[in-house]
Write a structure and sequence with these properties.
The protein has 363 residues and is mostly helical. The chain has 2 domains: 1-186, no CATH class; 204-363, Glycosyltransferase, CATH 1.50.10.10. 48% of the residues lie in helices and 6% in strands. It contains 12 helices and 9 strands. It has helices at residues 6-21, 49-66, 69-88, 116-136, 142-159, 174-184, 207-215, 221-235, 257-261, 282-294, 298-312, 341-353, and strands at 32-34, 39-41, 114-115, 195-197, 200-201, 205-206, 246-247, 326-327, 334-335. The strands form 4 sheets. A 3-stranded antiparallel beta sheet has the order 3-4-5.
Length: 363
């Protein structure tokens, strides 16, 4: 949509219609559809929660772009069903989605429970549905407005820790909150923690979630600057300005290595510095460049965009411009599958962001 190319915008609309046509019986949206063979996937070992979230966000951005009221009329009952399902996944109606292991894009990584990345998308999905109802369907939903307000406060309270924080009414669980301070350790005041579950908090840096905190307007200026400093000082590899999915890597000596080793669909991909375990993702780079452009950090954004182009034109199987899934975090070599649409679209996202265009128009 950022390209303003009519064929590409139309293709995106058709993609949303195809996904909606294969909505599951409870409201779930497929993570992918293979129409020629009739194969529909809603996830791997569990449902992909973020498929539903990105779908709602995509519908909102498409309608905002096209003002296609016929499209919105078709999608309204689809989205209504999704929002009901998402509410059920809150489990205890306290505002946060519960995400099972393998339940989002990092489907072979060891995080689960109340995952920051998914809560941010849930916030944006709720804002999007509110926008579509108010501007497109001409109706208001005061209950949804209240949920949006509460969810944003809860994200700020439960995933960012400063020394000396005291529990407030927005703390999800007081005992877990205290465990969060312990997990944060030296990261207090430096970045958003990735998740918590009934067992406690994770502490690794989730690059996608931290970027989205800023891009979606959850971070304060001070928090955003702290995250950027942490990225520069601790996260970026030598020789390439590209963000890993998670940092630091899980190594065989670490206590969660055994859990990581059994978390895969077909073959184990997460050796240190590969795939989600420290692999560098063009997908995330596009969003980070968009955030930098949005905050007028033009020179820095151009440096990251140059390395994103560099990553995409790497060769795989003897062919240049492989658009690889990820780059090895140490060797800086391409890995995973090639010809990845999200690696290509991330480069477009970065480029058009530097031309002053937004990724998200609904806020």
């Amino acid at each position: 949509m950022m390209t303003d190319d009519e064929e590409m915008v139309g293709t995106f609309g058709n993609t949303l219609l195809t996904l909606a046509a294969h909505q599951g019986p409870h409201g779930e949206i497929p993570s992918n559809v293979e129409e020629n063979q009739g194969r529909i996937s809603y996830g791997s070992t569990t449902e992909r929660v973020d498929s539903d979230l990105w779908f709602v966000i995509g519908c909102g951005e498409y309608w905002h772009k096209t003002k296609d009221d016929e499209f919105l009329k078709k999608m309204a009952p689809v989205i209504q069903k999704i929002m009901f399902l998402l509410g059920a996944w809150e489990f205890n109606s306290k505002g946060f989605l519960y995400v099972p292991a393998t339940g989002d894009w990092a489907d072979e990584y060891v995080h689960n429970g109340y995952v920051l990345y998914d809560q941010l998308l849930y916030l944006q999905a709720q804002k999007t549905w509110n926008h579509l109802q108010y501007h497109g369907l001409k109706r208001t939903d005061d209950r949804l407005l209240h949920k949006i307000e509460v969810l944003k406060r809860m994200i700020k309270t439960n995933f960012w820790f400063n020394a000396g924080d005291k529990p407030s009414d927005d703390v999800y669980h007081e005992v877990l909150f205290k465990k969060g301070h312990k997990a944060a350790g030296q990261s207090e005041g430096r970045y958003w923690l990735p998740f918590f579950s009934p067992h406690g908090y994770g502490y690794r840096f989730d690059a996608f979630a931290n970027v989205l905190c800023s891009l979606l307007g959850v971070s304060s200026t001070q928090q955003r600057m702290a995250v950027n400093d942490y990225i520069d000082e601790e996260v970026l590899p030598e020789g390439m300005k590209m963000l890993p999915a998670f940092h630091p890597v899980i190594k065989p000596v670490d206590e969660d290595w055994q859990e990581l080793k059994i978390t895969f669909t077909y073959t184990f991909k997460n050796q240190p510095h590969e795939y989600h375990n420290g692999g560098l993702w063009p997908l995330i780079a596009g969003f980070y460049i968009a955030d930098m452009a949005q905050h007028q950090e033009t020179d820095r954004a151009k440096e990251f965009l140059s390395d994103l182009y560099r990553a995409n034109r790497m060769s795989m199987d003897g062919q240049p411009w492989a658009f690889p899934e990820y780059i090895h975090g140490r060797k800086l070599t391409p890995g995973g599958n090639r010809h990845q649409g999200w690696s290509a679209s991330s480069a477009l996202m970065g480029y058009y962001s530097l031309q002053g265009k937004k990724v998200f128009h609904i806020s």
